[in-house]
């Protein structure tokens, strides 16, 4: 879903223990996750450190972005910030035995990416993982969003249409509406 962010390995990361900072900005404007569509009006900022860890390149650091989506309860605009940790391992070579033999029950199976044969790696894979992990499963405009009335569709954050109270009383088996109405009419 994200544009590739190709980083070419060079002498600065040739030996185990070598590290290299790598920060930047991506003009990524949107992403989708499940049924949700999100906008990224300010793009994505990342601040990473690449480390030669012997068997591969460890990519760690931070991703930050501002996300605009739609509230799951009231369908109004919902915004949140993501400041997520990036932690991805790009192996130089596919580990022996794992190729073509994906055992889903293997609890030791560690998630990893691969360094490309041409000595490049795609940082977008690491950034995308963080973006997905940090995106809330339920998107809300505010933690206590009251949502829409199931009867009339009113946004309950903005108005009280009265249906919630009516439903509550009906469930309790006491529905003294005529009496209440009479009282109020006389005011
Ligand atoms: Zn809402
Ligand atoms: Zn209502």
Brief summary:
By secondary structure, the protein is an alpha+beta fold. It contains three helices and nine strands; from the N terminus they run βββββββββααα.
Order of helices and strands: EEEEEEEEEHHH
Low-confidence stretches: none
The average pLDDT value, as a whole number, equals 89
Widest sheet: strand order? 2-5-6-7-8
- What is the domain total for the residues? 2
Distinct small-molecule ligands in the complex:
zinc ion
Task: Work out the strand percent.
Answer: 25-35%
General description of the model:
The chain is of the alpha+beta class. The chain has helices spanning about 125-135, 165-170, 175-185, and strands spanning about 5-10, 20-25, 30-35, 35-40, 45-50, 55-70, 75-90, 115, 120. The mean pLDDT is about 90. The radius of gyration is 26 Å and the shape is elongated. The strands form 3 sheets. The chain has a 5-stranded mixed β-sheet. It has a two-stranded antiparallel sheet with strand order 1-9. Strands 3-4 form a two-stranded antiparallel sheet. The relative contact order is 0.16. The longest helix is centred in the C-terminal third of the chain and has 12 residues, at about 125-135. About 15% of the residues lie in helices and about 35% in strands. The chain folds into 2 domains: about 5-135, no CATH class; about 145-185, no CATH class. The protein binds zinc ion (ZN) (2 copies). One zinc ion binds near residues 149, 151, 152, 154 and 161.
């Amino acid at each position: 879903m994200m544009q590739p962010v190709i980083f070419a390995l060079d002498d600065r990361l040739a030996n185990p223990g070598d590290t290299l900072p790598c920060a930047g900005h991506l003009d990524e404007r949107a992403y989708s996750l499940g049924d949700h569509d999100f906008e990224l009006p300010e793009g994505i900022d990342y601040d990473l450190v690449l480390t030669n860890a012997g068997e591969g390149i460890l990519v760690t650091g931070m991703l930050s972005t501002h996300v605009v989506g739609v509230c799951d309860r009231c369908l109004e605009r919902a915004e949140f910030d993501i400041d997520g940790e990036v932690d991805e391992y790009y192996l130089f070579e596919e580990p022996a035995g794992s190729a073509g033999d994906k055992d889903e029950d293997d609890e030791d199976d560690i998630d990893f990416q691969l360094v490309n044969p041409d000595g490049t790696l795609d940082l977008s894979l690491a950034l995308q993982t963080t973006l997905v992990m940090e995106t809330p499963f339920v998107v809300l405009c505010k933690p206590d969003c009251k949502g829409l009335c199931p009867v009339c569709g009113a946004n309950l954050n903005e108005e009280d249409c009265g249906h919630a109270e009516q439903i509550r009383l009906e469930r309790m088996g006491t529905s003294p509406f005529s009496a209440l109405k009479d009282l109020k009419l006389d005011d």
